[in-house]
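User: quick one, fold this
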Amino acid sequence: MKREALTRYLDDQLDSTRFRDYCPNGLQVEGRAEVQHIVSGVTASLALVDAAIARGADTLLVHHGWFWRGEEGRVTGFRKARLQALLKHDINLIAYHLPLDGHVEFGNNAQLARRLGWSVEGRFGEQDIGWFGRLPQPTTLAELATSVAAGLGRAPQVIASGASPEQPMHRIAWCSGGAQSLFELAIAQGVEVYLSGEISEQNVHLARESGVPYIAAGHHATERFGVQALAAHLTERFGLTCEFVDIDNPV
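Assistant:
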């Protein structure tokens, strides 16, 4: 498949121009014109670039790419090492950040809901990046934490409110990654618990004072499934070889 045809298709599918983002979405580094073998992953770290090279891939498809707004612009040190490895082996880098969080089918939020059995009722926040809905059945906080741990393969951090841990919950809001800033807006949706990848200091107090627990399930852990779903779609639609490589990240 031609690189330009693939990037046009992905831009259209993910509606990438709709989002005001912190980085460029789509093709970030140009490699080979013909795409046959894609390695996908969460973040375009040097370890993932090396994995793509070892597997003979021509394209790297990620959620966290490069060229973030406000970061150092000089290509030195680790930035040089990453870019040099990619260019030396003529590998494309394609990245989608917010478009891959918010997509209704392939997005991280959609895939979290599917994996954990939550039904979707609506969205909230700037650019509708937060989601809310219902748990599959009345669930205690301890039961929900156990379910999240099983689904994501790691124990989450749970900041409990003053509510009884045995009180059954029905409605949940969530946003993958570092969506600490959406917590107050999530509470306004009338939910009983909020889940994101990370938590900030001030949100510990908000969880305790609002009565709405906060589950911090891991930035990396909550954002592994969107890029996998997108890559699986490309395999089914175009017959491309796609491999997901999970570079361990405890955060």
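User: anything notable?
Assistant: The mean pLDDT is 97.
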